[in-house]
Every structure is written in structure tokens, then in C-alpha cells.
Amino acid sequence: MLPARVILMLLALWLPPAAAAPGLRVVDVVKAGDAASEREHDYEGAGATVEALDGRTLRQARGWLSYSMTVYEDTEVTLACAFRGSDGKKFVFDLLVEGRKIVTHTFVSPSPAPVMVEFRIPFDVTKGLTSIHVMLKAAAGPTPGLLELRTVQEHLERPADGAPERARAAFW
């Protein structure tokens, strides 16, 4: 069995989220706890802390944390959250997008290895928007340790001849 540190390093290089399907693309990425990335994404929070983990930073909050994320205005959005594994502990939080509660989620994983969790956002919440406000709000104890947040969408590109063509993108 590989040591946990090795597993974490391997997962940091390759987390295979389900959203990495053909036709889907990563539209925006924020690296939690990274000052430059958070500044670009209008980070705000209450009761939040930053922690370093194997060369990466993560953010956890007893209150809430939020970011502004770029999206396409014409397709449904999936939020892909990379969390530090909980090693059996439960973390309950509310996910809000544009001030609307999308879900109360209980996050638990069997090890400390990073885990990607995806949330499909109803199209009526993001339709017509090119930027969305995303908030994780602690519901019972702190939020899980957030490593990275991504907006993922299917998007049709129009080549020069005008025929729609599915966009392709790789996740890491």
C-alpha cells in the first residue's frame, strides 16, 4: 500500500472528475488559499482559515467563504469542488449560488486523500449570467477543506462555416 502522502501527491496531479467528459470544458478555476487566485475571484469569507497541505493550500470556514466565478450565459453549470478528504469526519455545508440555496451537502470520505464533488446548478439560476457568486456556508461545524473550485460547462463553438461543433477540454 502506498503512503498517504504519495497518494495525495498522485491525486493532486490527476483527479478524475466525472465532468471531464467530451464536450465539457473547464471555464474557470480558483485555487483556494492562493492569494493571487483568490484576488482574481473576489474571495470573501467569515471565520475562514488557510492551511498548507503537501505544497497546496486549502481554505476552511466556520462561517462562510465565497468566490465570483466566470461562466457561459447559455448552458447549465456544474461546480466541481476538490476537497481534502475528511478521514471519516462529517462536514455539513450549504452551497449557495447567486444567493440561492442549491443544496445542503454532507461531505464524508474514508481517507485524507482529495475528493472531487460535483454539483449541477439549475439553469434558471445562471441563465444569462457571465459571472456567478458561489458561497459555501458552514451548517454544522466547519466546511470541508476546499482545495479548488471549478466551473464546468458544455459549450458549443461555431467554426468559420457556422456549423456547431462541441468544444473539447482536458481537466488538468
Task: Describe the model.
With 172 residues, the chain is mostly beta strands. The protein has a single domain, classed as Jelly Rolls (Sandwich). It is built from three helices and eleven strands, in the order H-E-H-E-E-E-E-E-E-H-E-E-E-E. The chain has a five-stranded antiparallel beta sheet, with no helix packed on it. It has a four-stranded antiparallel beta sheet with strand order 1-9-4-7. Strands 10-11 form a two-stranded antiparallel ribbon. The longest helix has 10 residues, at 4-13. The protein starts with a helix and ends in a 6-residue tail after the last strand. The relative contact order is 0.27.
Which secondary structure elements does this structure contain, and how are they paired or packed?
Layout: H1 4-13, E1 24-31, H2 35-40, E2 44-53, E3 56-70, E4 77-83, E5 91-97, E6 100-107, E7 115-121, H3 123-126, E8 131-140, E9 146-154, E10 156-157, E11 165-166
Antiparallel strand pairs: 1-9, 2-3, 3-8, 4-7, 4-9, 5-6, 5-8, 10-11
| Major sheet attributes | 5 strands, antiparallel
Strand content: over 45%
CATH-assigned fold name:
Jelly Rolls
SSE arrangement, N to C: HEHEEEEEEHEEEE
Supply database-style keywords:
single chain, 172 residues, mainly beta, Jelly Rolls, four-stranded antiparallel sheet, disordered N terminus, disordered C terminus
